[in-house]
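Figure 2 data, in text form.
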Amino acid sequence: MGGGGELGFPKQLAPPQRRALHDRLTVLNHGQAQQILDELSGRMAVAQVKNPLRYCATLIERAVQEARAPLFRRPRLILTGGAAETVAPLLRIAWGREDDLVLRGLAVLAGSAHGL
């Protein structure tokens, strides 16, 4: 997730739910991820959300659909992190899985910082 600091999760979420959402939101930039969490917080403030992960999965699917227009094609959705197995069954759109995507990205950044 690019820049922006820590994400603000709804206080009602249990730690495993926070971890699952954090891992799932890595496919989005920080601003998009925070918008999804803000939407979830707002919904939880006015109504019971029985399945916060499913609710966020639906919002992520919408974000992918919205990204399609400026790209003129469907963006590739990649799951990464420990909660990928938890979130994958909730998605109704095609996705791929890259378990070490974040580590590979950090390696690229580290290499470019050292002129490699």
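Caption note: The chain has five helices and two strands.
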